[in-house]
Each structure stands twice: as structure tokens, then as C-alpha cells.
Amino acid sequence: MKQAIAGTWVYVTVLIFMVILIAYVTISINYANAYELSEEVIKVVEQYEGYNSNTRKRIDRILTNNVHASKGGCKKSTEHNEAVIGGIGENYDKQLNGGSYNYCIKKTKGNADGTTRYYYETTIFFSFSLPVLGDLFTFRIYGQTSGLRNVTDDVDTFKNIT
Predict the structure, then answer these.
(1) Nearest C-alpha neighbor of 108 from the set 52, 56, 162
(2) pLDDT (tens digit per residue) in 48-95
(3) How far apart are CA 137 and CA 109, in angstroms?
(4) 64 is in which domain, residue-wise?
(5) Any bridge partners for residue 88, and if so which?
(6) What's the whole-model pTM score?
(7) How many separate domains does the chain show?
(8) Are 125 and 102 in contact (CB under 8 A)?
(9) Phi and psi (nearest 5°) for 12?
(10) Contacts of 139 (CB under 8 A, 6+ apart)
């Protein structure tokens, strides 16, 4: 009887170890994919020199092609020289009324070498979910563009940052 109980403990220990290992690998792969998406979004914002309709279309296409469905909340801006919006497909929300968004973009004004530059910080979400339990954890991936001088924003919230 002792051997049967000892064998069960070993079996349970191996099973728990496998679950932890599989969860770690799954989170690592999701993190890598979300980081790659974040880098692509940053490149698009830099390419179009700001957040405008072309940027929104391109970001939506990138997220759609990568079947990115994770959502999260955007943090409202409290500083006078920055603004935040939440993106939902090709649409955006500048009020941030506690909704869930596919991505968030924050515009910040800064000075580098005596020149005014604008920085865009992106937030992409990814979640760890199980089929029966749904989303267990939502993680954020942050990224930032290099300083842009001449920006072409068509979002009122971002136009006010001068």
C-alpha cells in the first residue's frame, strides 16, 4: 500500500510540474507575439509621423492579420503635455470611459537638444486564457517611438499637444 501512495505523489508532482512548464511556455510565446506587434505599431506611427487615419488603418490591418483579440484598459493622462487614446479597430476613444481597447497610444511632448519632439508610447495587451475559465491574466507590452519633429495627427486630443 505504501508504494501505491508514493507512486501517486510522484505522479501528481510530475503533473503539476508539467502544467507549470506548459503555462510558462504559453505565456512566453504570447509575450513574444505581442512584443512583435508592439514593434510593428511603433514602426507604423513613425512611418506616418503621428497618429492619423492612415496610421489607424495600418494598425487595424496588422492586428487583424495577426488575429489579435486581447483587450485591456488605457490609463488616463494626468499631465498637461500628454494625451492618451484607446484604439478599437479603426476607431478610437479619446474619453477613455473605462472601456476595453485593442491598444493604447499616448502622445508626449518633450525637448531634446533644444528641439521640440513628440513621443508616442504604445501599449499592446495579451492575455493568458483557458478554454473553460476564460482570460485569467492580462499583460501589457509597452513601447515608445523615437522623437518625431513634424507630426501629422488628425485626432483632436493629440492636436492640442503643441
Answers:
(1) 162
(2) 888 888 888 898 888 888 877 788 888 777 777 677 778 776 666 666
(3) 32
(4) 2-159
(5) 91
(6) 0.79
(7) 1
(8) yes
(9) -65, -40
(10) 27, 30, 31, 34, 125, 126, 127, 128
